[in-house]
Amino acid sequence: MKEGKSAKLNHQQQHQNGHLSPSKFAKLFDPEASWDKDQLGDVLHWIRQVIGLVCGLIWGAIPLVGGIWFILFLVLSTSFIYGYYAIVLKVDEEEFGGHGALLQEGLFASVTLFLLSWTLVYSLAHF
């Protein structure tokens, strides 16, 4: 009986500390997992933020300049998000508001993060 309470307490502490349990991490790649609109939106938002930051750091470090690189970021980011929800998760996009709603999740925040990181790294590394 104490072991059951201890395991439940550990799970609650893990959840409160913000750590993902193995089952939640596995859900990110499970096409059979059930998603609600908010959960999927949060996952897509944070994936897009990571893509924006990584691309901004790389673009600034290389150094790349010009609008073509901004367009390439948009294409890469959108393609990755589409591939994730359509191919990996195999969700029915109509349940979540269609392709437009899913592809728009986190877009504007990631563009801002991308431009900020690109500009900062470029300015610090090449001046």
From TrEMBL:
InterPro entries associated with the record: EMC6-like (IPR029008), RCAF1 (IPR010742)
Keyword Chaperone recorded: no
The organism's place on the tree of life at top rank: Eukaryota
Membrane topology qualifier: Multi-pass membrane protein
Key word Transmembrane present: yes
Region (Disordered): 1-22
Listed transmembrane segments: 107-125
Pfam short name (any one): EMC6
Subcellular location: Endoplasmic reticulum membrane
Keywords, ordered alphabetically: Endoplasmic reticulum, Membrane, Transmembrane, Transmembrane helix
Family, similarity comment: Belongs to the EMC6 family.
PANTHER family xref list: GEL COMPLEX SUBUNIT OPTI (PTHR12906:SF0), PROTEIN C20ORF24 RAB5-INTERACTING PROTEIN (PTHR12906)
Protein name: Rab5-interacting protein
